[in-house]
Fold this sequence. Notes:
Layout: E1 3-6, E2 16-20, E3 26-31, H1 38-43, E4 49-55, H2 59-73, E5 78-84, H3 93-106, E6 113-118, H4 120-132, E7 138-143, H5 146-152, E8 157-162, E9 165-172, E10 177-181, H6 190-207, H7 209-217, H8 219-223, H9 227-247, H10 262-272, H11 280-297, H12 303-315, H13 328-337, E11 348-351, E12 357-360, H14 365-372
Parallel strand pairs: 3-10, 4-5, 4-6, 6-7, 7-10
Antiparallel strand pairs: 1-2, 2-3, 8-9, 11-12
Helix pairs in contact: 3-4, 5-6, 5-9, 6-7, 6-9, 6-11, 10-11, 10-13, 11-12, 11-14, 13-14
Subunit structure: Monomer.
GO molecular function, one term: shikimate kinase activity
Catalytic activity: 7-phospho-2-dehydro-3-deoxy-D-arabino-heptonate = 3-dehydroquinate + phosphate; shikimate + ATP = 3-phosphoshikimate + ADP + H(+)
Amino acid sequence: RLRTLRDDADMSDTLHTVEVGGATPYRIHIGPGLLDDGALLARTLRGRHALIVSDGNVAPLYADRVEAALRAAKPELRIARHVVAAGEAEKTLANFGGVIDALAALGATRDACVFALGGGVTGDMAGFAAACWMRSIDCVQLPTTLLAMVDSSVGGKTAVDIPQGKNLVGAFHPPRAVIADTAALRTLPPRELRAGLAEVIKYGAIVDADFLHWLDAHCDALLAGDDAALAEAIARSCAHKAAITERDPFEHGERALLNLGHTFGHAIEAEQGYADGLNHGEAVAVGMLLAARLSATLGLASWGDAEALRALLLRFGLPVDIPDGLAPEALLARMRLDKKAQASGLRFILWNGPGAAKVVADVDEAAVLAVLRGG
Ligand code: NAD
Ligand code: MG
């Protein structure tokens, strides 16, 4: 069962725990300062080996603190650190191999634990290494981007990229625990924070109309990095992702709703080349609005709801327009290649207004093209 509860011991409004049920239950701890909470970090450990995996931006900021907290709580622990260069381009099989080598060098046993300290790139790659080492060891996710806190650290998908495409090699491997220190978001570039907020808005759009109102009311606090507002937004997002992935862990149905805006978004990302232009969250923001307009075109949502979504995205400083220079026909061609596209034709997550979405197969290409053309 899933529930969100306040931490009674603290009574503060910045600490949250989300319990994820299903075949492999785990807890998501959310709040400021948790990376220094040695007792909490150590409670997740079964054995005597810990490997901290991080990237070149995050390790200098936080790895010493995590290591010190772990050492203080469990002096007999054997801890190693493995740092990979930052960026999506580093989410490779070669760097996955580097994490495996680090586990081997540590002499990690079956009860060892990988701590994935960083954004989704680190979490996906370190999680995949944990899934593979000795056919799977524990991975504790220590997400440091908002996107990783609300999305990639929860739900158990792990992967690396290959030249043929993103996330093509991976495994389902739920974390042992997720520990999200909201204070770590203070060093996150504002643009990365907004990208995470796009995914937060997505949860409101697909399953929680009240959450959309709450987000509208707390926009300034969230953009200013207010701990209580961020913790609440993260907890609600995680509760939604956890509930959905608990009911549909392997994406046979409902889990696909988490991809609202992603068919359009992925096409934009692919067409502009991943290096510059919109980042993932920004592309999803544009994609959600396009999905809303497509839904309105098909009579599934109202134009007023689509317009309200646009206004909310703009308030959060997110883009709502397809970047200049991307041809509608080229974007449509990308969507035909999307791995979510099925033999039956174009498949979209469409919107029925705030808090309601559904998967629709065989969407009319002419309608999609019209929306891409801004018609
Ligand atoms: P990222 O890991 O590249 O982090 C973004 C940037 O922020 C990096 O440069 C990183 O070094 C830096 N950074 C991270 N934390 C920081 C901090 N606290 N202070 C300063 N800088 C910091 O990217 P991301 O947006 O976190 O994650 C994107 C990845 O997540 C993609 O590879 C995507 O495929 C994956 N993803 C996976 C899932 C899943 O279910 N597994 C879901 C969504 C996304
Ligand atoms: Mg996404």
